[in-house]
Each structure stands twice: as C-alpha cells, then as structure tokens.
Amino acid sequence: MKGKKTDLGALDCGIARALSVIGDWWSLLIIRDAFRGEKRFGEFQKNLGLARNILSARLKKLVDAGILRTEPESEGSAYNAYVLTEKGERLGVVLLSLWQWGEENCFSEGELDRVMVERHSKEPLARLSLSTQSGRAIGMRDFTTVSKAEALPATRQ
Fold it and tell me: Residues 54, 29: contact at Cβ < 8 Å?
C-alpha cells in the first residue's frame, strides 16, 4: 500500500515549495522541452515517450501552478499550445544549473557531445556562480537562511 505523499507546499522553505510544484522529473523535462520550443501535447508526448494520462496530469499541474498557460495554437485551430509564462521562464536558471551539474557529475570524460551555448553567437555559457547583492563572489558553503529581521536592510522585502 502506498503512503500518502507529504505536502511540501506549506513548509517555510523555498526549496520544499518549489519541489511541490516542479519536483518530479517529468515536469522538469516538459519545461525543458517548452524552452526548446515545443508547444503541442503531441510534441511533448513524442519527445518524452510519456503515457497520455501522465503527460496530461503534469501539464495540468504546470498550468494550474502558472508555469505554463494554454492558448489557441492558431486562429481556428482545434489545438491548444502550452506556452511558458513569465514564472515558467524564470525556471531557465534552474534548468541551466541542473545541466551544468549533470555535465560535471553524470558523464564520463568525453561522453557528453553537447555544450550549452548562447543561441546566436554559439559562445559557451559561463558556469553559474553565487554572489551577494553587492556583487561579492561567495562559495557554496558561504550562505544560510535567516529571518528577514536579521538580514541587512538592503535585502529586506
């Protein structure tokens, strides 16, 4: 018997809440394909090889979460297009981060035959890095969370 899934959406943690929306691999792969220009149900299904009911459920969840929106594909068309919203577009940095992590940690030397580049110039992208709001570079162990009251005034919202 399967246990009830824990609802992460109420936790006071940005990671947990994000995972409650996009925490399964199919959702991230749908978003990846949307960034590549895929818009139709059939295109997602062909690229992912995903069962119709699972794809339908993931697309609905992404639409309900405001990551994708549906719109008529063209005037008079019976098909809807799934289009990234502004909220969905902001997931691009998450996908790039996953790509860069996967590139470094999931392939043998010389195995990956692709590189992430800027679309027009074909210049490879720089590694993502962390910095404070003032621009000072920091490492992966140089940050933590604090209450908004404890943060410097420039960071309070």
Answer: no
**pLDDT tens figures, 13-41:** 888 888 888 888 999 999 999 999 999 99
Go through the domains of the chain in sequence order and give each one's CATH number: 8-89 (1.10.10.10), 92-157 (no CATH)
User: At which residue do the structure tokens 């690229």 appear?
Assistant: 47
Instruction: Cite the beta strand spans of the chain per DSSP E.
Output: 68-72, 80-84, 130-131, 137-138
Q: Check if the beta carbon of residue 54 is closer than 8 Å to that of residue 35.
A: no
- Local structure of residue 83 (DSSP, 8 states): E
> Which of 13, 15, 19 shows the shortest CA–CA distance to 65?
19
Give the dihedral sign, CA 2/63/119/126.
Answer: negative
